TrEMBL record:
GO terms for biological process: DNA-templated transcription; nitrogen catabolite activation of transcription from RNA polymerase II promoter. Keywords: Nucleus. The keyword Nucleus applies. Residues 678-700 have a biased composition (Acidic residues). The keyword rRNA processing does not apply. The lineage of its organism: Eukaryota, Fungi, Dikarya, Ascomycota, Pezizomycotina. Residues 223-467 form the Xylanolytic transcriptional activator regulatory domain. Residues 1-29, 91-111, 657-700 are annotated as: Disordered. InterPro entries: Carb_Metab_Trans_Reg, XnlR_reg_dom. One of its GO terms (cellular component) is nucleus. One of its GO terms (molecular function) is zinc ion binding. This is Transcriptional activator of allantoin GABA catabolic. It comes from Fusarium globosum. Pfam families: Fungal_trans. CDD domains: fungal_TF_MHR.
Length: 700
């Protein structure tokens, strides 16, 4: 469908709502009574499903289907009808002794796009949640086209006990003067409100036309790029759903989501053989539309609003803290912080909500790290359950492309493991970097370092367990193993490993700062062990960056990655600044010079300056400041921290070190702070060995 007009829509501040203009005539696929979904499974043909009728002499339909005036089809394997099971609601047939007499006479095709392989979790039940007329579409909560939802919290002007006195219909809805109550569980209720009462609703179609006109006629190719490059490493959209809807009309999407997909995909424009020689679409114009339409979408938030905001935050220039705070607030509005396991919504929507909730959690925690800000999400108000395989219903792949199946499997594992790492990062931030935590250490005086070490040990063990438990599928060396040896398949697993090193560095930075504190009373041997463990982390991180190949560097990187690259240099600068002697300081200076060279040759094609140039700039700033340090004294090998193990005191007192017994060895101490022990010989003035890198292949 060609766009109606490419002219931008002029707007003023959203004060009064203008009369809704007539919309363009819908195409043939719209000549039905179906309501569009903002995001969800595509609507199937309006033709009735073959064999869906049942004999009039059989038992009557359930109350829900009778109320909705739709055919009631009994599930072959259950005592309830398919419509109620798909909607997640209780079926009145479940108590009927005759319910199993009625069987499903036909099947609906779930092969819409082409020859695909599909798991049972996204089969007929998922489709039935979106087929059957307006009522079935309204069983979704955050995906409706004409209504948006607001979670009713326990302290609002709606009293929960009074809500329970309302008269709810078979679809758990109750019409009030302020809107429609939607009860999804015994304790969770939402208020459904019409989109038509919000600013900007009247020109959503024109905005979608404007977005499409900017990229036309390359929209479909950009969609393909997005799902080939971005989606495997950041699966917050259901691919088959998106593609089905796009095949019908781009107007089925909210404008900010459509624009966000295009904006990200354009970063890999030159990697497409069909597009490389053509002029790029005007990204600035797309961004201008997004700023306006996303702002208007916040007045009627839906799951697509969260999707658009998260995608836009992944841009090289999109890393900003204030929008993250707004996304978290919108997530609370949509109830994404709640456990939706028992809600009366379609099963596939539960999976989508959980993926978006955890993506929002990641955005908040990594944003808090890279910006040095307090997190907005707290464990006391977070009820989302861990992700499972059933939460990833997008399980279709092209049988002509066997590597696509591997990408999908790798993407699920990658996303799940990043979520787990984000939970550990949250613990690090809460334990060491809140105002209360920092004050507690400061008030401990001379025992502050011992307190930090005692708090660090269990978190370090969690990091070690997390890293050791990574499946081979997402280890760095596995990304070089391809079903097709000549394949240039991109892999986003680099951002997972980089995030791990950033978490390690964040933990060790706190330890090193504590050691350098004037009030620290830790003896020199403990300082040696802690600094050696920190050095091992630094070397591993630098060697990891040195071993990244083109298929990693050209892939999608999570928004925090550019700062995570910089944190490696910042950590090296901290170790340089706190070095006790000139020899050790010179060693860090040389390694930082090598790291800067690695960053300079690792510039990622496709996104220009975004990834490693920021890290180089920050490294230049740090090393420039280090030149202001007074010259450090020269230390002989016998007096340096590198050889303190031969003169270790027999007993340590206080804190974590007591648990090791008397006279612990250096390897025993190192394992407290590092996922690997360090058994190699010391290099020059200080030990630079680390066996983490045996998992990594040589640089390609």
């Amino acid at each position: 469908m060609s766009p109606q007009s490419s002219a931008p829509v002029q707007r003023t501040a959203p004060i009064a709502i203008a009369p809704k203009p007539p919309r363009p005539e819908p195409s043939a696929y719209r000549q039905d009574s179906f309501h569009r979904l903002e995001m969800g499974h595509g609507v199937a043909s309006s033709a009735p499903v073959e064999g869906s009728s049942f004999n009039a002499s059989s038992i009557p339909p359930c109350l829900s289907c009778r109320y909705s005036r739709v055919n009631c089809i009994l599930n072959d394997d259950d005592d309830c009808c398919i419509q109620c099971q798909a909607a997640g609601s209780e079926c009145s047939l479940s108590s009927s002794p005759q319910s199993r007499k009625r069987k499903l006479h036909g099947e609906a095709s779930d092969d819409i796009i082409g020859k695909r392989s599909t798991a049972a979790s996204s089969s007929f039940l998922e489709e039935m949640a979106n087929v059957g007329g307006p009522t079935m579409l309204k069983r979704t909560l955050g995906l409706q086209d004409d209504r948006y939802s607001q979670y009713i919290g326990p302290t609002t002007d709606f009293e929960p006990s009074l809500i329970n006195l309302s008269s709810f219909d078979p679809h758990d809805e109750s019409l009030l003067s302020r809107g429609t109550l939607r009860k999804v569980s015994e304790h969770d209720t939402f208020l459904m409100l019409p989109d038509s009462s919000t600013p900007g609703h009247e020109h959503v179609t024109q905005d979608a036309d404007h977005v499409e006109s900017i990229v036309a006629p390359h929209g479909r190719r950009l969609i393909d790029i997005y799902f080939r490059v971005v989606h495997p490493g950041f699966p917050i959209i259901q691919k088959h759903v998106f593609m089905e809807k796009y095949e019908r009309s781009y107007r089925e999407f909210s404008p900010p989501l459509l624009a966000a997909v295009y904006i990200l995909a354009i970063n890999w424009w030159d990697q497409s053989e069909e597009l490389a020689g053509l002029p790029r679409p005007n990204v600035r114009e797309l961004e201008s539309i997004v700023r306006t339409t996303l702002d208007e979408a916040t007045f009627r938030p839906k799951l697509s609003t969260i999707q658009a905001g998260l995608l836009l935050s992944q841009r090289p220039e999109g890393d900003q803290w204030a929008p993250t705070a707004q996304l978290v607030a919108l997530g609370h509005e949509l109830g994404l912080h709640l456990d939706c396991t028992g809600w009366k919504i379609p099963p596939w929507e539960k999976g989508l909500r959980k993926r978006l909730a955890w993506a929002l959690y990641m955005q908040d925690k990594w944003g808090a790290l890279v910006h040095g800000r307090p997190s907005h999400i707290f464990a006391t108000n977070w009820g989302v359950q861990p992700l499972t395989a059933n939460d990833f219903p997008d399980v279709e792949w092209d049988e002509n492309d066997p590597e696509e199946k591997l990408d999908i499997e790798k993407g699920r594992v990658l996303f799940t493991r990043v979520v787990q790492l984000s939970e550990i990062l949250s613990e690090i931030l809460d334990t060491f970097y809140t105002l209360q935590a920092m004050n507690t250490v400061a008030n401990a005086g001379k025992q502050g370092t011992q307190l930090v070490l005692s708090l660090a040990k269990p978190i370090q063990l969690k990091l070690k367990e997390w890293y050791g438990g990574l499946p081979q599928l997402i280890r760095l060396d596995s990304s070089y193993s391809s079903l097709n040896p000549s394949s240039n398949r991109l892999s986003s697993i680099g951002y997972l490993h980089l995030a791990y090193f950033a978490a390690e560095i964040t933990l060790h930075r706190r330890i090193i700062r504590s050691l350098a504190s004037p009030s620290s009373s830790v003896d020199s041997y403990v300082q040696h062990i802690c600094r050696s463990a920190a050095k091992a982390r630094l070397i591993s991180a630098m060697d990891f960056v040195n071993r990244l190949g083109p298929n990693h560097l050209r892939s999608f990187w999570y928004f925090a990655s550019k700062t995570n690259f910089a944190l490696i240099g910042t950590f090296g600068s901290l170790l340089w600044a706190t070095s006790p002697g000139r020899e050790e300081a010179d060693w860090y200076r040389r390694r930082l010079g090598e790291y800067r060279w690695t960053l300079s040759v690792s510039s990622k094609p496709g996104e220009g300056k975004g990834l490693t140039e920021f890290a180089m700039t920050m490294l230049d700033i740090s090393t420039g400041l280090l030149k202001q340090l007074p010259e450090k004294p020269s230390m002989s090998r016998n007096g340096s921290h590198a050889d303190l193990s031969v003169s270790a005191p027999p007993i340590f007192s206080g804190g974590i070190l007591d648990s090791l017994g008397s006279r612990p060895s250096a390897p025993e101490m190192s394992v407290m702070y590092s996922p690997r022990t360090d058994d190699e010989e010391e290099e020059e003035e200080i030990d630079s060995s680390d066996d983490d890198m045996e998992d990594y292949p040589p640089r390609m």
